[in-house]
Task: structure prediction
Amino acid sequence: MIKAPATLRLDRLLSNLGYGSRREVQDLIEAGYVLLDGEAVIDSDEKIAVTPDLVTRMTVEDEPLDPLPGLVLMLNKPAGVTCSHKEQGPLVYSLLPERWGERNPALSTIGRLDKETSGLLLLTDDGALLHRIISPKSNIAKRYDVTLDRALRGDEAKIFAAGTLMLENEEKPLLPAAFEPVSPTRGFITITEGRYHQVRRMFAAVGNHVTALRRDRIGALALPDDLAEGEYRILREEDLAKVFS
Ligand code: URA
Result:
């Protein structure tokens, strides 16, 4: 049996997408600013079938409708912004359109990068997907480009691969991680866990200090070269599939 698409009252749909309170979007609708297939829809309680093509068929104030729920984004996070809804200072959400901060369900980062870490960060409003990606059971590899303060000793790759390294104040050793040096003070490390400040603490455990950290891969999904720092892009199905491969 083919499943019927979910339907939503137009005012609820727009309000959930962050266009304003129910009252505000009702005013927008009644004033004729919302078009479906080129025709104004002026009844706020009109039931709208929420199908993927709606974003190509509906406009609000002459702009295409914002992406529907089920949104997944990749952001090239700059250093200096925080992955949090609450903390002080610049937040990653300030890099997205302002209206997206009012969406219900809300967008959240899929895991976190430290304030001073840059690179590939995923965000979604799909809670099940978020949990699937961050679950330790998914065992998804994350690769980081690490710049160090001091020259590598030469035994780091062996130590990280052993699966025996204990971080301070932790009770379980880290899972094996792969490290590929590319210069005396730089390399790529791939980890499958997401412990607090993990990469920085791993290098501290071998007597070094991370001076710059940038994530460039999650699973087989690479940060695109043409996605500048601070920019984001909606992830296509085929890109999302790379996260799990
Ligand atoms: N490891 C860190 O130390 N910081 C991050 O942001 C991610 C991994």
